[in-house]
Amino acid sequence: MVNTLREDGSGEIFARVYKALKYVVYGLLSVNIALFLNEEMASSAHAAPSGMDLFTVIQLFSATLDTAAWVLLLLLFELETAVIPDERLVGRTQWIIHGIRLICGLAIVSAFWGYLGEWQVFWKSEALQVPACELVGQGWSVLLDFDKFIALDAQSCVALGAEVVVLTELEQVVATPMALNSAYQLGLVDVINSATWILVVVLLEIEVRLQLWGGVPQKFQRPFSGAKIVLYLTLAIAAVYWGFEGEFLDFWDAALWLFAFVFIELNVFEWQRDLAKEARQ
Questions:
Q1: What are the contacts of 204-212 at 24+ separation with CB within 8 A?
Q2: Where do the domains of the chain lie?
Q3: Which of 91, 204, 244, 258 lies 20 to 30 Å from 163, alpha-carbon distance?
C-alpha cells in the first residue's frame, strides 16, 4: 500500500515535493482547528443561552468539533493508504484504527446535527416591537452575519435602521432581515457541506474495505468515480459560495480539505495500482 512512486531521478524529487506539500496541507488543517475555536468562542459569548446543555455546546462549537474529527480521520486514512503496509493492518493495529475512526465518525455526525441546529436558529424570527435604541444597555446583541455578533450600543442600533427582527431561538439577539437571510443561507450551506463530506467518507470507507478484501470489483469502479465527482463538485461550489460571501476562513478551510482529499484519492489510486501489479505477477 505504501506509495510506489519512482525513487530515482526526477521521480524521487517529485515524490519528496509531493509528500512535503501533502503534510503542509495537513498541518494547515490542524491550525484551522484553533482558528475555528477562536471564532466560535467569540460567537458563543453573544449566542449562548444561560445553562447550556451538551447539544447547545455541540451546536455552538460544531465547526471546531467537525474540523478536529476530520483532521484525525484524515490522518487515519493517510496511515491506511500510504504509510502502514497491508500486512500490518491486522489484529490490534486494525482494531485501534477502527476504534478511533468510530469515535471520529460519531463526532462528525454530532457536528452535522450541530450545524443543523445552528441553521434552525435562523428559521424563526418576529418583528421588534420597540425601537432598537431603547434596548441599549440591556444586554442585547446584533447579528451581523452567520456566527458574527456585536453588542447593541448607541451606534449599532442606529445602523440597524427601522426594520428590525428578533431571533426568537436566541437570547436577546436582533438583526436586519438582510443579515438574517444571509445567516440562513450560510447555515444551509454548512449543513449541505457537512452532509456531503459524510457521504465522501462513507464511499472512501467502502473503497478502503474493498481494497483490503482483494480490490474494488470492476462493476463498482465507475459508479464510485461518478458519485465522488458529484460530491467533490458540490464541495467546490460550497467553497466558492463562501468565498463570494466573504467567509474567508470557511473558504480557506474548504479549499484545504479538497486538496487534502486529492492526496487521499491519489493514495488510493496508487494502492489500487500496486494491488493490480501484484495480482499480475
A1: 204/77, 204/264, 204/268, 207/268, 208/77, 208/80, 208/81, 208/268, 211/268, 211/271, 211/272, 211/275, 212/86, 212/89
A2: 9-123+178-280, 125-177
A3: 244
What pTM did the predictor assign? 0.80
Question: What would the pLDDT profile of 46-71 be if each residue is shown by its tens digit?
Answer: 766 555 677 788 888 999 999 999 99
How many other C-beta atoms can be found within 10 angstroms of the C-beta atom of residue 200? Answer: 20
Buried b (16+ CB within 10 A) or exposed e, 135-164: bbeeebbbbbbbbbbeebeeebbeebeeeb
Report the SS3 class of residue 6.
coil
Beta-bridge mates of residue 141:
151, 173
